[in-house]
Amino acid sequence: MRNAGRLALLIVVVLALGFLVLPSTVSLFAGQHDWYDIDTAGNQIPCQKCHADIYVELNGSPYHKGWGTSNTTADEGDCVACHQANTSITYANGTTNQPGTGAHAAATIACMYCHGDSTTGAPVAGGFGLSNLANDTGTYAAHFDFVSTANSSSTILLDENEACIACHTHVAVKINFTHYKALEFDVTWNTTSSAYETSNYAINTSTGTVYTIWGNANGDGGLLNNSTTTTTWGTGTWP
Ligand code: HEC
Ligand code: HEC
Ligand code: HEC
Ligand code: HEC
């Protein structure tokens, strides 16, 4: 009986090996020999095949869908309109038999490549002193530091993309805002003009308060005051 058991086990093992090893010559990936035709103008590689998450986001957005075959639905033509927008780079092109020396399918791109230059046809993001508009100095921009620091000290994304994306997309944000303790100044009585005068405006920085402010992907959010009090609005959940 023991030998019969061993034989049965041996048969199972041999069969299992057969399943694993024998069909290897025919277990090619389905579709492996069905090439996309890239000879027509434009890009025929479906970027969304691998970047389905990005496709779904773009497809649900109001902008940046007008480059491909449809103005209302996102497609691979929209992906390359942005990711090949930098015309100083040579990309691969099956229509003209171009191998692509700068980048093959895509390069990372700065929003301001299109939105900083009025000749690209995109609406210009002026007021940061970054566009080619003659009177764009950025002098009054409340978010000048936000945008310029995103450019100079952050390497997460290209140029000032972090700031553009933080405001213009549903990406969640978390900010540590430091507020000073007090505003201080002197009030003195001017005997000549018989009026009070204020002077020596200063900020008291001795113990600043840090508010941790966060906004989730719905635009809802909340704040943590010195890590003790939490206030939220909307759905109020940190993603
Ligand atoms: C077969 C899957 C596949 C297809 C098709 C594909 N990608 Fe990718 N892509 C990847 C993978 C994997 C990565 C991450 C690894 C890397 O950066 O090399 C990536 C990364 C990227 C990045 C980020 C690079 C970076 O440095 O942050 C961009 C932009 C990009 N792809 C754009 C595209 C565009 C545009 C297309 C269509 C022309 C495309 N991809 C088609 C798989 C794919
Ligand atoms: C390839 C060029 C290009 C790039 C890169 C690009 N955009 Fe655009 N953008 C456009 C064009 C063209 C329009 C107007 C047509 C449309 O809505 O698609 C537009 C529209 C917009 C609008 C709506 C403007 C309005 O007046 O309604 C916003 C906001 C915007 N883009 C922000 C961004 C941000 C943020 C980035 C970077 C993450 C970016 N864009 C990258 C070309 C570009
Ligand atoms: C409006 C311009 C625009 C369009 C359209 C666009 N992208 Fe992007 N994409 C960007 C920008 C800007 C970034 C950030 C690049 C950086 O600074 O690294 C980015 C980042 C990416 C990344 C890397 C970051 C990540 O989240 O993985 C991938 C991958 C990518 N895009 C793929 C795509 C694909 C696929 C499509 C088409 C479905 C597409 N993009 C359409 C502008 C665009
Ligand atoms: C502090 C938040 C903030 C930042 C940072 C920001 N924007 Fe804006 N942007 C706005 C607001 C607010 C509007 C006007 C919104 C409206 O009309 O509803 C706007 C408008 C725009 C428009 C439309 C202009 C037009 O002519 O129609 C574009 C394009 C744009 N921004 C792109 C960008 C780009 C690119 C960046 C990065 C350099 C950027 N923005 C940074 C808040 C921001």
What would your notes on this structure say?
The model has no long low-confidence stretch (mean pLDDT about 90). This protein has a four-stranded antiparallel beta sheet with strand order 1-4-5-6, with no helix packed on it. Strands 2-3 form a two-stranded antiparallel sheet. It is elongated and about 105 Å long. The protein folds into three domains: about 45-110, no CATH class; about 120-170, no CATH class; about 170-239, no CATH class. The longest helix is centred in the first third of the chain and has 20 residues, at about 1-20. The chain is α+β, with helices and mostly antiparallel strands and about 240 residues long. The chain starts with a helix and ends in a 6-residue tail after the last strand. Helices cover about 25% and strands about 20% of the residues. The chain is built from six helices and six strands, in the order ααααααββββββ. Strand 2 (about 180-190) and strand 3 form a beta hairpin. Bound molecules: heme C (4 copies). One heme C binds near residues 58, 82 and 111.
